[in-house]
């Protein structure tokens, strides 16, 4: 019997005992609460998100890299390892944790008032409250500088108008962090569910990330007090910094999906016989397995390096650094998923095996929180000193 892919380089030796324990805890949660049910959730497009959030909160997986307000205060590497285990079960489930902890909670934790932090963060860390992050718009995805959502002053209040789309958790969120353009630049608001003028429509008929809840948010004259505005926000750099924070979860997470595909392919190839022998004994199959294991280990080393840098700096990585991680790891993860499907042949499209589900999910991860092209331009700008983004 061969070794598992990440054991080839003894990569566990690079982790601390605490990191391994957090990884094991996340794996147990995924094994207990996700794996037995996720194929059905995916097929039916119906996931008990609140039950999952409560289980994740009990395990300390929500906002785990944040300090105070009921948050665990773990390392960025520990968060990444937890996301890797969750995405080994399903990308949509990992996305729930990333959006909750690294987008919504991080935005409130870094830019919110003490009142906002006390009101929202403890409940979100426990999984009792859910949040969503309203940045993307129907006409402004990769280019948030074109944001159409507006916030205007009306006496002591703010009035918001606009539309946000492809917002994970929006249909079930208790609070939406909404980004809008005001007279003096982009600002952010913590908007409670049920606020008059706030409407949410669930986006159905998805072919990817089906084990998650995604929606469109319409803001029609939503009136908010000044206390709803995130006072630390000064510019568009605030929501962009939240994306930088969240992308580390993706950089680690997609390796879990790739690992699960590769583990499945290894087990399948050992059992599947053709021409009188297991297909894992054929040279072409071994070449595929070797190349995929190589990319998986390279991706893990890159993710671990970025996580260690994030922990050492105790602050966000530079944009081009997370661009390198997301561009490489998502691109290689989806290649691994597709290659593993070929090893499983026709069986690879059945929901009894996770490979096609992972491949389909990774198609979404490939383009959300920055398409490959956007990350290439981010890296290219740093290399050349020239901005190639369209103006």
TrEMBL record:
Pfam families xref list: Acyl-CoA_dh_1, Acyl-CoA_dh_M, Acyl-CoA_dh_N
Cofactor(s) it depends on: FAD
Domain Acyl-CoA dehydrogenase/oxidase C-terminal per the UniProt entry, residue ranges: 240-382
Keywords on record: FAD, Flavoprotein, Oxidoreductase, Transit peptide
GO BP terms, alphabetized: fatty acid beta-oxidation using acyl-CoA dehydrogenase; fatty-acyl-CoA biosynthetic process
A GO term for molecular function: flavin adenine dinucleotide binding
Presence of keyword Oxidoreductase: yes
Keyword Oxidoreductase recorded: yes
Residues covered by the Acyl-CoA oxidase/dehydrogenase middle domain: 132-222
Domain called Acyl-CoA dehydrogenase/oxidase N-terminal: residue spans: 16-127
SUPFAM superfamilies: Acyl-CoA dehydrogenase C-terminal domain-like (SSF47203), Acyl-CoA dehydrogenase NM domain-like (SSF56645)
Family statement: Belongs to the acyl-CoA dehydrogenase family.
Name used for this protein in its record: Acyl-CoA dehydrogenase family protein
Species of provenance: Actinoplanes aureus
């Amino acid at each position: 019997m061969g070794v598992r892919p990440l054991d080839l380089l003894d990569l566990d030796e690079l982790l601390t005992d605490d990191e391994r324990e957090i990884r094991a805890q996340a794996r147990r949660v995924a094994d207990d609460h996700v794996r037995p049910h996720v194929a059905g959730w995916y097929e039916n497009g119906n996931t008990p998100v609140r039950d999952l959030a409560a289980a994740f909160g009990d395990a300390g997986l929500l906002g785990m890299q944040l300090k105070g307000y009921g948050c665990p205060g773990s390392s960025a590497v520990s968060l990444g390892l937890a996301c890797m285990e969750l995405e080994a079960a399903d990308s949509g489930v990992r996305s729930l944790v990333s959006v909750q902890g690294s987008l919504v909670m991080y935005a409130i934790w870094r830019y919110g008032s003490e009142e906002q932090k006390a009101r929202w963060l403890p409940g979100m860390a426990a999984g009792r409250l859910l949040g969503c992050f309203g940045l993307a718009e129907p006409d402004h995805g990769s280019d948030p500088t074109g944001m159409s959502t507006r916030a205007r002053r009306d006496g002591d209040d703010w009035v918001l108008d606009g539309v946000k789309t492809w917002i994970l958790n929006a249909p079930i969120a208790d609070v939406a962090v909404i980004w809008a353009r005001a007279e003096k630049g982009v600002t952010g608001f913590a908007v409670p569910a049920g606020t008059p003028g706030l409407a949410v429509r669930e986006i159905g008929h998805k072919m990817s990330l089906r084990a998650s809840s995604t929606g469109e948010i319409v803001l029609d004259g939503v009136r908010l007090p000044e206390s709803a505005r995130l006072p630390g926000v000064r510019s568009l750099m605030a929501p962009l910094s939240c994306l930088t924070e969240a992308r580390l979860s993706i950089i680690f997470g997609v390796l879990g999906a790739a690992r699960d595909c590769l583990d499945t392919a290894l087990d399948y190839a050992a059992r599947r016989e053709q021409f009188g022998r297991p297909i894992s004994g054929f040279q072409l199959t071994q070449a595929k397995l070797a190349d995929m294991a190589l990319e998986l280990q390279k991706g893990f080393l890159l993710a671990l390096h970025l996580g260690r840098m994030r922990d050492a700096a105790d602050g966000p990585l530079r944009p081009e650094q997370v661009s390198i991680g997301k561009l490489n790891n998502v691109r290689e993860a989806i290649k691994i998923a597709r290659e593993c499907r070929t090893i499983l042949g026709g069986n690879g499209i059945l929901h009894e095996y996770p490979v096609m589900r992972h491949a389909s999910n990774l198609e979404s991860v490939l383009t959300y929180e920055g398409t490959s092209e956007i990350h290439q331009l981010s890296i290219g700008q740093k290399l050349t000193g020239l901005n190639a983004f369209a103006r």
